[in-house]
Specification:
Two copies of one chain form a homodimer. By secondary structure, chain A is an alpha/beta fold. Chain A has two domains: 208 residues, P-loop containing nucleotide triphosphate hydrolases (Rossmann fold, 3-Layer(aba) Sandwich); 47 residues. Chain A has 13 helices and seven strands. The first copy, chain A, has a seven-stranded parallel sheet with strand order 3-2-4-1-5-6-7, sandwiched between helices. In chain A, helix 1 packs across helix 2 and helix 4 crosses helix 10. The radius of gyration of chain A is 22 Å and the shape is globular. The two termini of chain A are 39 Å apart.
Chain lengths: 313, 313
């Protein structure tokens, strides 16, 4: 594969190059570091928004409605639908594409499902790289939608600038979400399907839960929407823009991004170390023999391994 | 803490030294590598038996019954009740101790609950070290009992020479266990509470499930017990001894232990690497700046980090 050509394509905003680059991330191909090096300097301008919540709360419809508002405001928009739990994109995500059909012919909207097939670090490492590709391709807004509310989804949501957590009556109960740690990563709460009975209860329960928590510099607002109508989506867009303005003005955006990048670098280094140890153990059959003969203990062997891969000063 | 004295105490089979050494493992104390180095040469003689199954199948009663049979055969026995999911030993494990009371005054029986409070590698790394302490202290048989059937329990069970998987009517359904991957680590199956209605169904369902699987050199037998009576426990003991004889005669024991030790060394090295990267990132504030300025990309930063900790030839 010609990585230079791919990088040029991505930087020129060519949708086919962007799609191919994201596939490369999914597969964890060897060209990934070169791709990353080629695009990184052109990233950092996109606003990234996470969309997390239990299945059925209407995340895809909400994403579609947000795309509409953002397009009306003149933004180029990308939607990345991420399934961290499955190596293949399943029915739910194909369904998302169908619901996005109204944007299918708009050249300034890019929609893509994503799974991890070969990326060693899983979605937590693959998703940020895919987001950077979209950023480098010139999309002003990147919406990252996840399928559920597990730990992997929390990690993906926490890797966006503005994390929207979506609830709906009868779905995605706030107590469950608190257990999953998802409430803590929320910058904006959305109670969707506000026309349904029970929406007011969800909102009240959520407000109570939030009052129990610590106070923060940014207090996440709770908005109600009915994305199908659509109702409240303009207000949601305003809230997203307000959060972004606060991030920039308070200096939080840089701090948040730096912390995120450092975590990512740490995780990437750990993955590479894991590969290196596996290779070193494969090569050094003597370690196995010495362990079995009891002439070296596991802690000492681990130190020796670390020393072989990593002679510390 | 005087590690040399502790090592001497463990090797002399002093129960108080053994208890203190296991606490040291639980807490992940800095003395751990020295303790490991001191005892490792004296390990490898104990037979280790895992006891895994859903809560309520009667693992503790079965462990007590096995202790009785093993004591009658003149063995010194240790029971390690492990809770991989909780940092503190909970009610279930305290309950186990009560059920073990008949052995409380026997100097050749050691019973201990274990949690991980500070060990970085979690129970998957702490449990094998605790087992080695008991091995070095001269216990001929070490029974490792887990509380449930999650991934952490599977890891702990897979770290014993002979893994018993326990089912009971109405509990620990074979399909669920198959999903958790626990059936694959089983060397002997036990259908406990055989006096209860439905025991024959559990056995049949299990046999069918096993016929679906691949054939192995060692075909795990399915035994039925009623540990409270007790009934079938002698036969279970015979099955455990038969499995051990097969392990030794076929050379599988050494192969199994070597593979296990290598996995452990790999995991220990990875933990240490994680610590080292965190320290290196803490120290090198320039990495954060360069990432934010986009003068280095995350993959290159990970490589640089790996290089700083580990200059590869």
């Amino acid at each position: 594969m010609d990585v230079d050509a791919l990088v040029m394509g991505v930087l020129a905003g060519d949708a086919r190059a962007v799609a191919r680059a994201i596939s490369l991330v999914e597969d964890g191909r060897a060209e990934l570091p070169a791709l990353s090096a080629g695009i990184y300097a052109s990233t950092g301008t996109a606003a990234t928004v996470g969309l997390t919540g239990a299945p059925g709360v209407g995340k895809s419809t909400l994403a579609g409605a947000l795309v509409r508002v953002a397009r009306a405001a003149g933004r180029r928009v990308a939607v990345l639908a991420v399934d961290p739990t499955s190596p293949y994109t399943g029915g739910a995500l194909l369904g998302d594409r169908v619901r996005m059909q109204e944007h299918a012919t708009d050249p300034d909207v890019f929609i893509r499902s994503m799974a991890t097939r070969g990326h060693l670090g899983g979605m937590a490492l693959a998703a940020p790289e895919a987001v950077r590709i979209l950023d480098a391709a010139g999309y002003d807004l990147v919406v990252v939608e996840t399928v559920g509310v597990g730990q992997a989804e929390v990690d993906v949501a926490a890797a966006t600038d503005t994390a929207l957590v979506v609830l709906a009556p009868g779905l995605g109960d706030a107590v469950q979400m608190a257990k999953a740690g998802i409430l803590e990563v929320a910058d904006v709460f959305v109670v969707n399907k506000a026309d349904r009975p029970g929406a007011a209860d969800v909102e009240r329960e959520l407000q109570q839960m939030l009052q129990l928590g610590a106070t923060h510099e940014w207090e996440p607002p709770v908005l109600t929407t009915s994305a199908i109508e659509p109702e409240g989506v303009e207000e949601l867009w305003v809230a997203v823009e307000r959060h972004r303005a606060w991030l920039v003005d308070s200096g939080t955006l840089d701090a948040k991004r730096t912390a995120r990048l450092l975590r990512e670098v740490e995780a990437l280094a750990a993955e590479r170390f894991k590969l290196a140890t596996a290779e070193a153990l494969e090569a050094g059959g003597d370690v196995a023999t010495r362990l079995l003969e009891r002439s070296v203990d596991p802690y000492a062997a681990a130190d020796a391994l670390l020393g072989r891969i990593a002679p510390q000063e």
